[in-house]
Amino acid sequence: MVITGSGNFTGTRTIAVQVVEKGALQKIGVKWNKPRFVYDGTEHKLSSGKDFVVIDAKTKQPLTDTEYRTVYAADVTRAGTVRVTFIGMNAHTGSITETYQIQPNQKADDILVSAPNADGYAFVSTGVTAYQPVVSVSGTVLLEGTDYMLTYHNHKKVGTATCKISFLGKSSKGKAGIYQSVPYLIENETSVLLKTSAFRITYYVDKAMTKEMKGSSGKLTEGTVYLKIEPKGKKSNYTGVAYASYEVHADGKDLAKAKIVVTPKKTQYTGSSVGADTIQCAVYYDGEDITDLTDICYGNNIAKGKASILVTGRANGFIGAKTASFTIVPSDIKTTK
């Protein structure tokens, strides 16, 4: 028989083929000694002579390796059911399919999970998943999504979150493989722009906060306004009370009329907060650069997605605030070190 290459292959190859009558073909059989494998991160294929013997169905004599082929139809590393097919070759025909099990590793002493950062992780409003544990069994590093999956709980607020490690594959009793829950800290280490709807804000015209601003009659035309900020609702993600103040000027220059230029508009995710060293922000009022007369705060600036910039007035009568944004895009794995 001559095989001629095409597409990605060229040339020819001649292979000798033995032709026999159909009636002369002998069916195969399998003597089966199902092994007991336990997941350890390595492949678990069958051993001829130990786990099985392929035989001639009529004579019951063992066949050589050239008289049959073994085909595995599934991953032979993960815990679960593996299907294997034995196919007759040369003077033998037919196929026989069997299954065997790879049991989940139930020895907790063999499983190592890297500890989270003792200093905690910076809070981001989309949820903190920066803790990516390294999981190994008997010295073999496992793959997330292949050997185990991670789920996070209480990770969208400052405090203690939990990363749950669940091993994939089922035991013979249908129970999931063992798992471990690892607590880790989330700290408010970076600026995050929060929604005002989550807070109750009370305005006062005196520093002692005894005279509350109510209605148009209580508004100031000149002076300092004092704010008391408290979380709303019993199930709020926030606790405590914050205080702030701002100046009111009759002839103030409202930053709402300013123009903010952000360069560049996009940057790649790095796992660290993105600030003025990467994203430059310039503020213009009536065509004049007033950047040095303002305070600029970057928020929501770690995870991929839309990050925020808050510009507030600081000097020369500039009042109010204005926001801008830039985008953090996923990092290209080809260039990630």
What's this, in brief?
The chain is mainly beta and 337 residues long.
Walk me through this protein's architecture.
The chain is mainly beta. It folds into 4 domains: 91 residues, Immunoglobulin-like, CATH 2.60.40; 80 residues, Immunoglobulin-like; 57 residues, no CATH class; 86 residues, Immunoglobulin-like, CATH 2.60.40. 0% of the residues lie in helices and 43% in strands. The chain contains no helices and 28 strands. A 4-stranded mixed beta sheet has the order 4-9-7-6, with no helix packed on it. The protein is elongated and about 105 Å long. The two termini are 50 Å apart.
Strand order of the largest sheet: 4-9-7-6
- CATH architecture descriptor of the largest domain: Sandwich
* Model regions low in confidence, pLDDT < 50 over at least 5 residues: 170-176
Instruction: Give, in order, the helices and strands.
Output: EEEEEEEEEEEEEEEEEEEEEEEEEEEE
User: What general outline do the C-alpha atoms trace?
Assistant: elongated
Total number of strands: 28
Distance between the termini: 50 Å
Helical residue percent? under 10%
Q: Mind summarizing the main beta sheet?
A: 4 strands, mixed
Tally the helices.
0
Helices and strands: which structural class?
A: mainly beta
Number of domains: 4
Strand content: 35-45%
Q: What is the CATH domain class of the largest domain? A: Mainly Beta
Give the topology.
Layout: E1 2-4, E2 12-14, E3 26-32, E4 37-38, E5 52-56, E6 68-72, E7 80-88, E8 92-93, E9 95-103, E10 111-113, E11 121-122, E12 135-137, E13 140-141, E14 148-153, E15 159-167, E16 179-187, E17 199-204, E18 223-231, E19 242-248, E20 253-254, E21 259-263, E22 266-268, E23 280-285, E24 288-289, E25 294-299, E26 305-313, E27 318-319, E28 321-329
